[in-house]
Specification:
Helix content is 23%, strand content 36%. It is of the alpha+beta class. It has a 6-stranded antiparallel β-sheet. The chain is globular and about 35 Å long. The termini are far apart. The relative contact order is 0.18.
């Protein structure tokens, strides 16, 4: 039996991936950035069964379905915390990351 020593999550196919950091939890809405990612720089949002990906640059929904209430919470938080998202994105890039650090 192996013990997981880092925070992990699983996608709908049952594949595990490492989460490099939950950035925030606001009104039950969780914002996080994963270590191995694809372009463009983005953050993950989950609230109950709702899931989505948002661009760090404009906070637009890239993928997923979220209620208007959840989108409003995300946008309100993003307006004051974009710099934190950029910092967390840059800090979580592994050396072999093809996307690299945040650039506008």
């Amino acid at each position: 039996q192996e013990l997981l020593v880092s925070p992990f999550s699983a996608n709908e196919r049952g594949e595990f991936y490492e989460i490099k950091g939950m950035v925030a939890l606001t009104d039950g809405v969780k914002m996080s950035i994963n270590s191995k990612e694809h372009a463009p720089p983005h953050f993950h949002v989950t609230y109950g069964r709702e899931e989505g990906l948002f661009s760090i640059v404009y906070c637009n929904l890239i993928k997923g379905r979220l209620s208007p209430r959840t989108r409003n919470v995300v946008y309100g938080w993003w307006k004051s915390n974009k710099a934190l998202l950029i910092e967390k994105w840059d800090d979580s890039r592994p050396s072999d990351c093809s996307v690299g650090v945040y650039k506008e």
